[in-house]
Write a structure and sequence with these properties.
It is a single chain. The chain is an alpha+beta fold. The chain folds into three domains: 1-34, no CATH class; 36-410 and 500-615, MFS general substrate transporter like domains (Growth Hormone, Chain: A, Up-down Bundle), CATH 1.20.1250; 412-496, no CATH class. The protein is built from 18 helices and eleven strands. The strands form four sheets. Strands 4-3-7-6-5 form a five-stranded antiparallel sheet, with no helix packed on it.
Amino acid sequence: MSVENDVPLDETCGCEVGCVPKSRKRIPLQIFQCCATPPGALVVLSLAAFLQGFIVNGLINASITTLENRFHLQSSEAGLIASCYDIASCLSLLVVTYFGGRGHKPLWLGWGIVTLGVGSIVFSLPHFLAPAHEITNADETCSLSVNGSTTQCADATLRNYRYAFYVAQLLTGIGATPLYTLGITYLDENVRQASSSLYHGIYYALSIFGPGVGFLVAGNILSIYTILGTTVNIPETSPQFIGAWWLPFLLFGILTVLVGIPILLFPWQLPGTEEVRKNRENEMHQDKVACEVQENCEFGKKIKDFPKCLLVMLRNPSFLFISLAGATEGALTAGLSTFGPKVVESLFKLSASTAAVYIGLIAIIGGAGGQFTGGIIVMKVRLTVAGMFKFCIAVSFFSMLALLILLQSCPNPLFAGSNALYPSTQSINGINAPCNMGCGCNPDSFNPVCGSNGITFYNPCYAGCMDTLTNRTFSNCSCINGNTTSQHTILGYCPGEACPSGGVVLFLIILFLALYLTFSIAIPALQATIRIVPFTQRSFAVGIQWLFLRALGTIPGPILFGFVLDKACSVWGTSCGVRGSCSVYTNYFISRNLVILVIVLKIVGLIFYSAAYLTYKPVPGTPTETEGVSMTTATDHSVREKTPVHKAGDNPTYVEDTS
């Protein structure tokens, strides 16, 4: 059956009615048919990928520090929030890719995007459900008449709202699963192989552009107080200041739901693309079982075929090694994107909003530029699978060298009880000291003040300040040596020593280079993955690879990075006597711990990339470069046949047949 212009019904944009395949009907909607082209599909799917990156890798990562302060979370707990997205993805990957890979991909994609939007909306709910944030103890001073702590535990249950974030991330993880599995193969199946890398490069670039814009948007919104319309007279760098983290999750969650609707209307396959799906196994890894699967067009449509589908992937060593390499890169990028703003904020004493803007800018230019560059290189240089593996090895090595910029350790400002002594003390024993004994100080209130002696204190009370001159200045502070007039503090950190060797500018430039190189690997690695497996199993292969990436990379990555950051903490905050988020980090330990972690991950990744190259065994007759001939039909006489002359290593040499 067909519609106007002789377009088959299953290639039109429209609504699917019915659940049973035999009784299912499709109602065409001609108004959307203009989108049923490869460029049209690319635009809509790229917009969905942009929103996914914007929400999951942009907004959430830029808001981590704010969420820690607002809900008294430890870095490892904040890392678990980020990892829940990947946990959900892991649990749903095999189901989505196995059944969706041979089913109606746009339906799986559309409902996934709607679920993603709902998850984003749920993420904003703790703002409305939790008690309204109040700037407590902003004028807290030492009261010697109070015996013991004045801690009030009204907010003791705030940490329980982390479970709402877990649920929201599980929804977004399930919803986003089809995007980078079925979305990738849907584009690949509907364009010529020579153009596939370009489409994937644009698609991935937009997905990376999303986190960058997310950081920028969050950076600006975090400068707005969380209760809209309320003006507060404290600096943004103060932990007491909580930005409007929830607002973009709500707004863009609604937008994502709306974007999912047109994707639901996409056809099973785009009109006129039947020919491009032919002769696409010319670089498949040589394996007996894989060849059997390739020749059986009906294979993989039934649940009983699942074990053999899985066997095909597990028997492909190059596929396994490139997937393991992707897992190490995933752990690295997930950890850095989650805690990158926090690291920059701590090392250079920036506000959460400023750090988010900086990371956002380098993510947009470095991440998106790297993805696009990788796609262009594959298309223009016409890299074979072996060439893609070599490219990944070389670029991964240079990105490892660039990440050594994390060795730059900026001096910590002097902080009483962390790296500076209180008066009349001989050793550092935390924030309690004889000079603030009996003041009834509240350890739950981390509100740093800079003393006239150049030392930062936990809050005005722990500086022993008796009087308030203004809402930002405190006087008569017993923990500062000198006469009464010189014993004063002001809200905020003391500036401390300047960071040597270029400071934040050099740090961000080299970090940009590292991100650019790291993300330029993505498209060559993806193209290698989908070319070394049977064509009909590409969706399933990408799903298996994402399972590796999630389970071994992006799930443990943020937790691991959070763990090493917690190890660099020198002063912990509390919430009603229970350890909460870290208040003060030691910059040297941040640098040391992160460098050790990223170098280990990079070295392991290099080993896996090398193993993928060494174990790759293409079928006989593999061309020396990726060519448009690979997706033409046997009747296309505009392309002259090429005959193999000899093989050298992995790649045979070709000459043109002029007979």
